[in-house]
Amino acid sequence: MTNLKHLALLGAAVVPGLALPKAADFLDSRQASVFPSKFEWTSTDALVGPKNDGRGIAGIKDPSIILKDNVYHVFASTAKDEGYNLVYFNFTNFKDAGKAPFYYLDQSSIGTGYRAAPEVFYFAPQKLWYLVYQNGNAAYSTNPDISNPKGWTAPKTFYNGTPKTIEDRLTGGYWVDMWVICDDKNCHLFSSDDNGRLYRSQTPVSQFPNGMSEPVIAMEEKRKEDMFEASNIYRYASGKYLLLVECIGSTGRYFRSWTSTDIAGPWKPLADKESNPFLGASNVKFTGKQWTKSISHGELIRTSHDQTLSIDPCKMRYLYQGVDPTVDVSYNSLPWRLGLAEHKNPAC
């Protein structure tokens, strides 16, 4: 309960006869300004890379991560010239992440063929884990047990084909990087076209995963590199959301950021420039040698498992893909590795 002593501690002036604000008002105000104007991160060396297991994988990419019962569960893309697939592994400590055995998800009902860019979350209304990924469409599989990689179902898709709104604007680009987040009423599906546009669809929580609407353009930039792909959207307080989008800068990949009080937008710039990014080589200090100049597709470690994708702005850790900048090979053959960046927030 808010009282005069509590208000004094919060630095609020007390006016006789004036209705006192609720404690939640102060908490929401604190959360709204909890992000700094400039972000500073530290990063590990590369922690996870391909294994010498006969698969011939060139790179490990696009990680999605869940911490459940003190176990980190990671889903990622495997890349090589012949194409992409998905892999799962788990560990309890990041220093041991590179030792974790891989389970390739083409051994489950997800099957072989092009699968990439996973996102994992627990959809509480159905008591099912969802793995969202791209397979030429926006696809998903489900599983009642995240620790059982054999349990994933065969792919189903959110759409019958590429939605017309996206198809009409796809020349020179690709439909990629699907991302689902839900609020109390709707589940929203975001995706990118590598042409400078971020798209959003929605369906009622009660109908998910069916009934996705025709996408609308959530945000766009004239220069495609300024809103390229790999969007992440998180809830960081009640009714407040953080949007990250991977961009291509002068020296490598980095993330711009925005905030909003509605998943549907509009979005207010937070740290949205290459010179002042949310996360990029310019604001990351490495504990060892700088092994990458690209801070690319990955995910923040969430504080919840469910479809709300909640995070704590005071304790942000981002699992990302990076690559040796001196390597000159085709894109699918790049030796991507996974590293962990940690943010120490002075506002907290």
UniProtKB/TrEMBL annotation:
This is Alpha-L-arabinofuranosidase. One of its GO terms (biological process) is L-arabinose metabolic process. Alpha-L-arabinofuranosidase involved in the hydrolysis of xylan, a major structural heterogeneous polysaccharide found in plant biomass representing the second most abundant polysaccharide in the biosphere, after cellulose. It comes from the Eukaryota. Gene3D superfamilies: Glycosyl hydrolase domain, family 43 (2.115.10.20). It is found in: Secreted. Its EC number is 3.2.1.55. GO terms for molecular function: alpha-L-arabinofuranosidase activity. Belongs to the glycosyl hydrolase 62 family. Its main location: secreted. It catalyses: Hydrolysis of terminal non-reducing alpha-L-arabinofuranoside residues in alpha-L-arabinosides. Pfam families: Glyco_hydro_62. InterPro entries: GH62_arabinosidase, Glyco_hydro_beta-prop_sf. GO terms for cellular component: extracellular region. Keywords: Glycosidase, Hydrolase, Secreted, Signal. The lineage of its organism: Eukaryota, Fungi, Dikarya, Ascomycota, Pezizomycotina. It is an enzyme of class 3 (hydrolase). Residues 1-19 form the signal peptide.
